Amino acid sequence: MSSSPPPAANLAGHLDPAGNLPRHVGIIMDGNGRWANAQGLPREVGHERGADSVRTVVRAARELGIEALTLFAFSSQNWDRPPQEVFHLMALLRRYLIEERGEILDNDIRLVTVGETHRLPAYVREPMVELIEASATHSRMTLCLALSYGGREMITDAVRRIAQEVVDGALEVDAITPDVVSQHIESSRILPPLDLLIRTSGERRISNFFLWEAAYAELFFTETLWPDFNRENLLEALADYSRRERRFGLTSAQVEASLQEEV
Ligand code: IPE
Ligand code: IPE
Ligand code: MG
Q: Which listed residue (10, 16, 20, 78) is catalytic?
């Protein structure tokens, strides 16, 4: 058998030989409604408790040294929920952006968003844009809120822009590679590769979240409902992640050789 060097390209940007901590964690924050139902409370109360979990998890992720945390807060499909629930979620989002401003700025967190944010009402967009700009140079952790976000919508948008570049003569069809596609998908362009995708509430599906980005993410599903999710649950997911071997299509021996080279 030949012992040629492993194709490092598969592993580029992913390996963290130092601590096995994911660079980029994404969370599908699900189960607010069921949490409320179980207590005989309106769904809205579940969303409010969910916002408390957001605060807890953002703080924990920053303290643990996660480079980027993306929270799936509202999907493109969630607009079709009853109008009063959508309104409450929007009002909650505005409240979060205003109340957490100090915490985000004081802790060197950079806020970014992905999704069709032009669809958000002005009373959400205004504090959102203000905080994005105020935190733009921060570098301790990137907090990405996926708002009015749909993975298919993002890929469709990228395809449309790539097609336009071809029509304009700015791009050759043969030059369209996965890297070029990534460059046209904002989340892939501005964030590190997605390493760990967590979904709460026992559902085992992606629900149109990071479809492109999840290609080689490790998946972690927990029964815990989002309002109950706390620092310990995050630690449990990170511990599970640290025990996994990510092979990116290679053999175990190749991955081990690559890791040895890096140390
Ligand atoms: C997640 O909780 C929050 C959003 C999708 C906005 P849900 O509202 O989906 O809660 P369940 O799934 O109905 O329990
Ligand atoms: C996914 O949860 C969207 C967010 C967490 C923001 P949903 O509750 O909308 O997903 P489905 O309907 O169960 O697939
Ligand atoms: Mg749900």
A: 78
195 catalytic? Reply is: no
Residue 32 CA to ligand 1 centre (angstroms): 5
CA atoms of 168 and 140, how far apart (whole Å): 40
Q: What angle do CA 68, 123, 62 make, to 5 degrees?
A: 20
Residue of the CA atom closest to atom 13 of ligand 2:
207
Domain 10-262 annotated CATH 3.50.50.60: no
What are the residues whose beta carbon lies below 5 Å from ligand 3 (ion)? 30
For the stretch 158-180, pLDDT in tens is 999 999 999 999 999 999 999 99
Mutation choice for ligand 2 from 32, 75, 81, CB with most ligand atoms inside 8 A: 75
- Torsion region of 250: left, alpha or beta (phi above 0 gives left; psi -120 to 50 gives alpha): beta
Residue 106 appears among annotated catalytic residues: no
Query: What is the rounded average pLDDT for all residues in the chain?
Result: 94
pLDDT classification of 234: cutoffs 50, 70, 90:
very high
Residue 1 Cα to ligand 1 midpoint, Å, equals: 52
pLDDT tens-digit readout, 134-152? 999 999 999 999 999 999 9
pLDDT digits (tens, 9 = 90+) for 252-261: 999 999 988 8
How confident is the model at residue 17, as a pLDDT?
Answer: 45
